[in-house]
Structure formats: structure tokens, C-alpha cells
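Data availability (excerpt). The following record was deposited with the supplementary files.
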Amino acid sequence: MFIDKAKIKLSAGNGGDGAVSFHREKYVAAGGPDGGDGGRGGNIIFKIDDNLSTLLDFRYKRKYVAQNGDNGGANNCTGKSAGDLIIKVPRGTLIREAETDGIIADMSETDEVIVCKGGRGGFGNARFATPTRQVPRFAKTGTKGESFEVFLELKLLADVGLIGFPNVGKSTLLSVISAARPKIANYHFTTLSPVLGVVRVSGETSFVAADIPGLIEGASKGVGLGFEFLRHIDRCRLLVHVVDISGIEGRNPVEDFNKINFELEQSSKELASRPQIVAGNKGDIAPDSGLENELKDYVEKQGFKYFSISAATHAGISGLVSHIAETLSTLPPVKVYEPDYVKPMPEIGRTFTIAKEQSGDGFVVEAPWLERILAQSNVDDYESLMYFQRAISDSGILDELINQGVAEGDTIHIGEYQFDYII
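Predicted structure:
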């Protein structure tokens, strides 16, 4: 089964929490805080596996979660960092962020890339010891790992794309010029998935050709299979347009040629302008040469190189292959997409908003950074509470509450927590 697109959810590991611990040892008085830091959460890494050819694995598993880092321990022991989660994909896979459709990575040349970063471990209470705060009873929790959904899209890495109507001989041509063995039969849509083949020319010269199935009239609008597989010629440096010149199906070769090019243009202007060679196939069974001459004159007037071949009898194949190799030597390398996804910027500074409740005497403070500090604080411990209150005071939240008319007894909402304002 050929699967060339998938949507999965990624969640990197969270960082471990810092520990609250105090040194205890015989004959050592007031050993002081010795809580260690938490370990780093696991990253999610995508890696190329050249043994894979489809995205079939992602049809059955849609969620990938890396392990969390371990919590810190006593005696200044740092928690163990989690191992990275490796996800293997075939070469040519494009990774897009689902919400923005931005390109995160093109798995064509880079062997591996970190897509989701794990969270940092939180500091243990040993980090907060100062001459004036010698017994800190609080530590920081680990930060959360990155999490988002991504689209995976497989775009085959081929130098040459064989295009044309179904049953014109593309699969036969690929089987002749390469070691690929696609299914060949005398009916439309014999080939239901793209097939790659390596073509050896001479010495170390070679190129990769792909048989692209399902291009018919209306393919760019989803008719037939073309809409699904047009993406696979997106990277091709050169297109070989195979046209049936025999006329045995009652179609005109010139009309077929124009219809396929029209679908390419509807799909992508850039794709339609790609260098193209026209190969008139099945000339060995053509009742007369009138249709071929008409096609040859037509395409040459438009600046395309024309070759008369017969994939079945191998006539004209060597000349076609040689010209393809010669043309490829003058073209730029296979297209590689540049990442354009911009991760949301982390919060800069200690910004906040304060709004008065519409019903009741209270104020709602919106400050994600403050909620993180509150989650890491022990409100039952005096020093930890002082650390939290100092953060409120230094940020200007108290001054703004006073400006907005806060009175004693009013309720202050910060995330899931509520406090009473006391003068």
C-alpha cells in the first residue's frame, strides 16, 4: 500500500522537577540545601531511512510522545535526562506544521533534524541558597516540551518524471531503461502508485526516473488519481512526456499532449515551465505515420525536443536516454525546500494584564510567567511565599492593582489560584 501523506501529533518530553532536599549527615550540623536539578526531556528527532519508501507506518500510529526527564534527587543528584525519540521517514519527506502549513524540514539531504525540543529540567533548592536565604524550601518545576501537529508529505526524489495519459507506455518505458519492474497490463490505471527506477547511462553516469500514474483530464481538480500524485513530479528536474501516437484508442496525440500540459499548468505554473522532452510511443503499431508527423511538427514548433520510440521493441530508446542524461547535466540539482516555519517567540519580559471582574469585587491577573512561578512555589512556606510576593512587587503588578482601585478583602485571581488582598 502506497501512503504518501499523514498527519501526526508530536509531544517532546517535559523536563524533570528540581528537588527540595537538605543534607543530613552524622556530625554535620546545618548541612544546607542539596536538592538537585531535574533532567532534560527527550527531543523528537526525524531521521532519513533509505529502506522506507512510503509513510505507511504513520497510518496506524498518529501520536508520538518522548519520555520526560527524571526529577532531581538529594545530595545534589541531577535527574537523568530522557532519551530522544527517533522517527524514521523515507528520503524526500516534507514536514509541515499543521496549523500554519510552514515547512519545518525537508528530509532530502539532512540525515536528521530535531523537530520538537524537550523541556529543560527545573532547578533544585540548592540553586536558591543565598546568605540571606539559607534554607530555601522551594524548587523549580521542569519546563514543558514542545508539542504540535505536523503534516508529513512524501515528494519523490527523482531527476526525471514520466508523465502522460494512462496506458501510453510509461511503465513499459521505465522497465526498459531501468531495473524497475512495475506492473504492466493493457488497461488504464495499471499503475496505482509512483515507481522509481535508476537508469545507468555509461560509466558512473546515472539518473533516477519516476513513473507518475493517473494523469488525466481534470487531474488538477481531483479527477482520477492525478491529484494525489502530481506532488511527486514537483521535484523532477526534467519531464518526459510520453504520448501514444498509434491512435488505436481513438485519441489525437496533439490533443492528449495539450490536455496533460494544461493540467500541469493548473497545478503549478512553475511545474508547467519545467524542461520537457516529448516521446512519441507505440509507433510500431501505428496504422500510418500521419498522427506522429502531426505531433512532431506541433511540439517542435513550441520548442520541445521530439523522439520517436517504441518501448515494446526498444526502438529509439538509447537515443532518448542519452539525450535525457545530456540535458540533466545542464540543469540545476533536485529541488530542496527551505524551512520557513517560525516558532512562536517566547515571552519577552514580565508582561501582564489586569482586568476587574464584571461581577463581584475582584481582579483577574493574566501573566503566564507568574503562573509558572506560582506553580513552583510552596505557599505554605514563608521563604517561598516571600519569593513569589517579591516577583509580584518587582514586576509592577501591585502598583497597577492599586492604580485600579484594589481594596482590602478584594479577590485576586491568578490562573487557578485566588488570593485575598490584605494591606
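Summary of structural features: The CA atoms of residues 166 and 188 lie 5 Å apart.
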